[in-house]
Amino acid sequence: MSDVEEQVQVEEEVVVEESSSVSIEDCLQKVLRTSLVHDGLARGLREAIKALARGEAELCVLCDSVTEAKIISLVEALCNEPEEKIPLIKVSDAKQLGEWAGLCALDREGNARKVVGASCVVIKNWGADSEERNVLLEYFSQQ
User: Fold this and answer.
1) Which sign, positive or negative, has the C-alpha torsion 60, 62, 68, 69?
2) Which of 18, 55, 123, 139 could form a disulfide with 59 if both were Cys (CB 3.0 to 4.6 A apart)?
3) Where are the beta strands (DSSP E) in 44-139?
4) pLDDT per residue over 64-102, tens digit each?
5) What does the angle CA 47 – CA 79 – CA 66 come to, to the nearest 5 degrees?
6) Which of 84, 30, 78 is CA-nearest to residue 52?
7) Strand (E) positions, 44-127?
8) What are the Ribosomal protein eL8/eL30/eS12/Gadd45 domain coordinates in residue numbering (predicted)?
């Protein structure tokens, strides 16, 4: 029986090491995929602003490479309203954000083709409770 107890302890240590090596971008990608499956994403600027204005947003992801500065200031202002502060995270590549949000076609091998860039994506419904979601919420609570 002592052998079984030692194996359980080793497995717990391995899980702790894996969770510490997970980056915020990896967590964000998995949370966006989960939310997409549960129909909880507002993709694109028009849908995102509607969700932010209605107060349906749980998390906002904004692309830094947007050419219009007014778009960035509008989204930041809607996220920082005094009634409801919505967590905002910025990514650098619009094509990558579009791929994470499902704005692409997949080939037979599962590789993304014909990726459409997204300037803003809002999570309206987290979908399922996951470890990645908890990591993101903890990250925003620390800031």
Assistant:
1) positive
2) 123
3) 59-63, 88-91, 105-106, 112-113, 120-123
4) 887 788 888 888 888 887 777 888 888 888 888 888 887
5) 60
6) 78
7) 59-63, 88-91, 105-106, 112-113, 120-123
8) 28-122
